[in-house]
Design goal:
80 residues, mainly alpha, 2 helices, 32% helix, disordered N terminus
């Protein structure tokens, strides 16, 4: 999967026919193949992300994906 920071997703995997989470329940997958997840943040972290998202005119998801790829370089170049 390849990502372009500050821009649109270049390519995304096809969604699974019947996606299941780690506990066997259904997983929400978008039409573009992205998986929905829940992240628990402190109020301060939440406010920071929302403000940064607003200032930079980017989605919170895009900011989190960028940070994940910066912190975990092994994610880059993976194709699923």
């Amino acid at each position: 999967m390849s990502w372009r920071y500050g821009g649109a997703l270049e390519s995304a995997p096809m969604p699974a026919k019947n996606p299941q989470g780690p506990r066997g329940g259904r997983t929400t997958v978008t039409a573009s193949g992205l998986v929905r997840t829940t992240v628990h943040l402190t109020e301060k972290e939440h406010d920071f992300l929302r403000e940064k998202s607003y200032r930079e005119r980017r989605s919170v998801s895009e900011i989190l994906r960028e940070v994940l790829h910066e912190q975990f370089p092994e994610l880059d170049g993976e194709d699923e």
